[in-house]
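Moderator note: this is an archived Q&A kept for reference. The question asked for a predicted structure of one protein chain; the sequence and the answer are reproduced below.
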Amino acid sequence: MTGATHARELITSSVNMYQAVKLLQQGVIDKDANTAKLLEDNKFYFVPTLNVDGVALIEENWSKNKTITPVRKNRDMTVEKNT
């Protein structure tokens, strides 16, 4: 399970870690039979932040401007105004 795959998906890192902790709690601490079997039979990989550079870019822009600015801009687009 990966989090922060794209730059603006900041909350997914927390969701990823929540799912890891929940899975461990249910399988190991609470001794839920289904979850324990799931943990025994499978391997799980949790990567909280896949796109470190994208997250850093968003955090840097947020701290400077207090707004998230678009990374890409379509410069070829023209807007016609009716006058």
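Archived answer notes: Helices lie at 11-29, 33-41, 52-65.
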